[in-house]
Structures are given as structure tokens and as C-alpha cells.
Design brief:
Elements: E1 19-24, H1 30-44, H2 49-52, E2 68-74, E3 77-91, E4 94-106, H3 114-129, E5 133-138, H4 143-151, E6 157-167, E7 178-189, E8 202-204
């Protein structure tokens, strides 16, 4: 899951109220894509120029394109974002329908807004979609952060010891068309309990990361 966690210490009491919008991809206008592209470049840019590059040319997605988005707005514009895409992944030998979550970001001045707010808005949306699980991948460096914000609150379970194989979003003559990553897997039980998540040490996306 493309994810950025802010390191800002801005005073929460000085922030404008955040309004949340659930938008299907076909509902977004050109102005929305331009605004989101700018948001992602500014949010991902501090983590490295390469991370901001996919959002050049007013593109508001990095790999796979989301099906729907939860977008937070305040007086300054886009404040937070998380995308979702329904897809079948293979966990070990089991084909499994999930809603992959990705493109998560919070504007650098809004650290206190947190991933939990975005997830709480997204959760009932996933329930309406009827998917058994939400699914995402994150870096090992974020384990303690996500455990504190999600796992301990019962919103998600973090699974380690899993390799995830994905396709690259573009074709490069000098690179393999797939990549395998050792990442943490984030599972949100939506329509089925976490006990029904299949066991397996390899997950195939059979497509690019969201």
C-alpha cells in the first residue's frame, strides 16, 4: 500500500474541520485529478523524488488505478486520501477477493488526522461492497505505528513473514516485469473473520500495486 506518514507537529486545535468525500473513479473531474496529483507530489515528494514521479502530468494514481477513493478536504484543499480497488489475489493456493487499499497520504501539516480517520470512513464503504477482506502492504518500518493506530483498535491485523509478488505498472526493457517484496500485510476483516484468511507465505497480486 503506498503510504506516507507525516512527521509534522502542528497544533491540532488550529486545524480546519475535515469533510470526507467518497468518490467513484468515474465521478472525478479533471480538476479533481489535478488537485490530487498536486497533493500526492507534495506528500510523497519529501520521501524521495522517485516517489513523486508517478504523479507528474496531473496523474492521480501510481500503479493500479483505484476504483473508489475516500478524500478528506479542509479549508486548504485535499487533506487526506486513501484508495480502494476490488481484485482477486492468490494467497498460497487460494484465490481470494479483497479490496486492496493504497494511495494513502496525509498532508504534512496534519499529522494528528491519522490513518485511523481514513480507515474508519473507508470501513463502512467496504462493508457495502460486500468484500470479505481489506488488504494492503506496508513497509516494516511502519509496524509499530500501524500497530498502535490500527491493530490495537481492532481495525486490522498485521501479518509478517509474507512475500508479495506484483507486476510493474510499466514495461522496462532492462527490468523483470514482476517484483517480489518482503513487506507487512495489513488485513481488515470485513465480511469474514480474520481466522478465515488463508495461510501462505507468498501472495500474488497478479497486477500492479495500488
Amino acid at each position: 500500500m503506498n503510504i506516507v506518514v507525516s512527521s509534522s507537529t502542528a497544533d491540532i486545535s488550529m486545524r480546519s474541520p475535515v469533510r470526507w468525500r467518497v468518490a467513484w473513479e468515474n465521478e472525478l473531474r479533471l480538476a479533481d485529478h489535478i488537485e490530487l496529483s498536486d497533493f500526492f507530489r507534495k506528500t510523497y515528494g519529501p520521501t524521495g523524488a522517485f516517489n513523486a514521479k508517478p504523479f507528474e502530468g496531473h496523474r492521480s494514481w501510481a500503479g493500479a488505478r483505484p476504483e473508489l477513493r475516500v478524500i478528506g478536504y479542509d479549508a486548504r484543499g485535499v487533506a487526506a486520501h486513501i484508495g480502494a480497488l476490488r481484485r482477486f489475489i492468490k494467497v498460497g493456493d487460494v484465490d481470494l477477493l479483497v479490496a486492496e487499499l493504497g494511495l494513502y497520504g496525509v498532508r504534512p501539516d496534519l499529522e494528528g488526522l491519522g490513518i485511523t480517520h481514513s480507515m474508519r470512513v473507508m470501513y463502512p464503504v467496504l462493508q457495502k461492497l460486500g468484500v470479505p477482506f481489506g488488504f494492503g502492504t506496508v513497509r516494516h518500518a511502519l509496524k509499530e505505528h500501524l500497530t498502535r493506530l490500527l491493530a490495537r483498535r481492532g481495525l486490522a491485523t498485521i501479518i509478517s513473514g509474507v512475500s508479495v509478488r506484483s507486476t510493474l505498472p510499466d514495461v522496462y526493457l532492462k527490468l523483470s516485469p514482476t517484483r517480489v517484496e518482503d513487506v507487512l500485510v495489513l488485513v481488515l476483516p470485513i465480511g469474514r473473520p480474520i481466522s478465515e484468511w488463508p495461510t501462505g507465505t507468498v501472495i500474488d497480486r497478479n497486477g500492479p500495486e495500488l
